[in-house]
Prior knowledge:
Layout: H1 3-15, H2 18-25, H3 29-43, E1 48-50, E2 55-57, H4 59-86, E3 91-97, H5 106-115, E4 119-125, H6 128-136, E5 142-146, E6 155-161, E7 165-170, E8 190-194, H7 199-208, E9 216-221, H8 224-232, E10 238-241, E11 251-255, E12 265-270, H9 277-287
Parallel strand pairs: 3-4, 3-5, 8-9
Antiparallel strand pairs: 1-2, 5-12, 6-12, 7-10, 7-11
Amino acid sequence: MELRQLKYFAKVAELNNFSGAARALNITQSTLSQQIKQLEGELGVELFLRDSHHVNLTDVGEAFLPSALRTISEANSCIDRIRDVQSLGTGEVKIGCTYTFAPLLTEVVLLFMKQYPGVKLDIVCQPMEELMQMLERQQIDVALSYKPAWGSMNIESHILFDNRLAVVVSKTHPLAECKYIRLSELEKHPMALPATGLQARNTFDRLCEGTDYRFQVQLEINDVNVLLSLVKGSKLVTVLSQATVARQQGLIAIPLDHKDCQMEGAFSVCRDAYMKRSTKEFLRVLSENRSLGMAMMEIY
Length: 300
């Protein structure tokens, strides 16, 4: 059974006339009759009662017509939806994001939603390891993070912007006037750290490997926005990427005086996997977001 045959059947049923239906369909009457006979042969029933003057539906034809019309309508809806997706009138982007990267997304998300109100964004925050697994299982379309320290044969990462780990304090903190800070200087101040497993914390822990620093860690938390609020309203010190506080009022990001502080913003996708147009467009908006210093890059 072909969609074309259902359309032919529906038109004959509408007009009760083979010649009129053939003209409406812009095909020959013999072609129309042949296709209807093939459909009846496949179904094993007669759909029309024919005589020299009239064509009417059989009782089986009457029962079959609603299903045929529904199938034709659904097929047309599919075509319309495909065209809509192609024009980004609808669609969905499933985005995975690390907790440390999440504060950077507000402006990009609002801009994308304004440009493409019909496209749904489904955003989930997870640790890096979980995001990579979700990518490989194709549960998300793209993962946004600072570039992973380890790689996978099935995943490729692309740099969006250069960044570094920094010491973050309130504008009224004694350290706020410093141009650079050494790790040893942090021993003198109470600290609130991102929880173990978050990318900023992982980078900080790597910097401290093999040292005997004794930091005054009073708090660990996996919610970066809450962490920023706590630091803003206290004398606590934390460590986050410079980009995380780029748009934050009342906070200062001071570079660490250390050579291994790189935290490059990146997006990761499955290697050789199909990328939806809506995902490509979201990454374009993300990569063009000048407020975060992101450079334009080719993603197509």
